[in-house]
Amino acid sequence: MNEDEEEALEVMQRAIMRANVDYPGFEGGRPRDPILRDSDESRHLAMAAMNGLRKAGFEIVRVGSGASRA
Fold first, then answer.
1. Does residue 15 contact residue 43 with C-beta atoms inside 8 Å?
2. Which residues fall within 8 angstroms of residue 22, CB to CB, at 6 or more apart?
3. In a designed cystine with 53, which of 10, 20, 26, 58 is the match (CB 3.0 to 4.6 A)?
4. Which of the pair, 14 or 67, is modelled with greater confidence?
5. What is the reported pTM?
């Protein structure tokens, strides 16, 4: 996993962990319990999403500010 992918994984993990807190009614207006997901579960789901993107031919590359870290 390259540096951009690792950073994207961390961003996705935090988003998954906080999804029910930040967006309790996001899915079709159905209210959800405002709880934080477990860190391990969040990382597992983020890794599954990342692998799904890779298998579908996507490449994770940072663009915009901070893109040139070399």
1. no
2. 15
3. 58
4. 14
5. 0.75
